[in-house]
Amino acid sequence: MKNIAIISGGFSGERVISIESAKFVLKNLDATKYVGYQIIIEETSWYFIDENGDRFEIEKNDFSLNLPSGKIKFDRVFNIIHGDPGENGKMQAYFEILGILSTSSSSVISALTFNKAYCNKVVAGLGVNVAEEVFLNKKDKIDVKQILEHVGLPCFVKPNAGGSSIGMSKVHNAEELLPAIEMAFKEDNQVLVERFVKGREITCGLINSKGSDFVLPLCEVVSKKEFFDYEAKYNGDLAEEIIPAIVEKNFEKSIKSTSVFLYHKLNCSGVVRMDYIITEDNIFFLEVNTIPGLSSASIVPKMAKEFGWSFNELIDKILEEAN
Questions:
Q1: Structure confidence by residue, pLDDT tens digits, 165-195
Q2: Does this model's pTM top 0.85?
Q3: What is the rounded (10 degree) CA torsion for 318, 298, 122, 99?
Q4: 2-103 has which CATH code?
């Protein structure tokens, strides 16, 4: 039996979603192969709470757990921390130093893909369409006129490194731009202002397992709000997720092949979800999520179910690819 640390929590606004995902992973572990421990990662402490409610701190020198029954050393880490520090490469670097296998892309790749501006530059360099953007640092002088000359209206303003659309807003006029940028800067020291691309939002989940690429059925996200914001993402009444997405075969083929292409060119590992906007005649890359949600309400488990995998099979495949 292998001991699995399911790390959850983190330092971002996605903490609650991460903890729910960890519960889902724990519930769907193959009990004949693994013993799971949900580890909460907070800025001040890393800990495990047992079934009696007793709390035990992680020994950070070797990422072990001292329980009354003895010391637990972990064979693998299931990383389900969305945002900082689990999706941006920090935890990955820690486990790489310790030599403990974990279920996400490497520290370098995680840092790259979590930084939307840098990732977009690489993706564009690979010949995939991305929306025009303006990249801002907190110390930059904000020139509203110059920004809008580049991206036009409406446009999106978002924290450069973040998830779940926290701090993101859609701007309709020049007066809204500066407040939107200021709101985004509350979440991150870097901000992206992106040209609005009118179209349908399609997402693609995939995993490489034992050398084979498994591309899950596409999902179309239809938000009842103006865009797929944090509230819509986690309130089933505010968005519809259509799986499989009803798209023309050429679009389906293009999205899936582009996703496989980017997965390997970006050197991703484990399960990822890539988001796109499709227009009448083109596809635009939005972002790659290297640690997508895995709660019962999340898109990837729904895709896997439509694909014919049980939740147990999905979690098993992710653990098998720990590196």
A1: 678 899 999 999 999 999 999 888 999 999 9
A2: yes
A3: -30
A4: 3.40.50.20
List the chain domain ranges: 2-103, 111-121+198-320, 133-195
Q: Where do runs of H (alpha helix) occur along the chain?
A: 15-27, 90-98, 107-114, 116-125, 144-151, 174-185, 230-233, 249-265, 299-307, 311-320
Q: How far is CA 36 from the centre of its chain?
A: 22
- CATH assignment of 111-121+198-320? 3.30.470.20
5 has a pLDDT exceeding 70? yes
Q: Which residue in the block uniquely carries the two structure tokens 């899936």?
A: 256
Q: How far, in Å, CA of 260 to CA of 232, rounded?
A: 28
Query: Which of 3.30.590.20, 3.30.2010.10, 1.20.1440.20, 3.30.1490.20 is the CATH number of 133-195?
Result: 3.30.1490.20
CB 276 within 8 A of CB 283: yes
Place of tokens 């580049």: 150
Contacts of 144 (CB under 8 A, 6+ apart): 174, 177, 178
308, two tokens: 């014919």
Query: Which residues is 39 bridged to in the sheet?
Result: 7, 48
Beta-carbon count within 10 A of 19 CB: 17
pLDDT 10s digits, 110-162: 999 999 999 999 999 999 999 999 999 988 889 999 999 999 999 999 998 86
Count Cα atoms within 13 angstroms, Cβ side, for 70: 3
| CB-CB neighbours of 312 under 10 Å | 13
- Give the number of C-alpha atoms closer than 13 A to the C-alpha of residue 128, restricted to the C-beta side: 29
Q: Which tokens hold the place of 232?
A: 């819509």
Whether the pLDDT of residue 237 is over 70: the answer is: no
Mean pLDDT on 228-252: 75
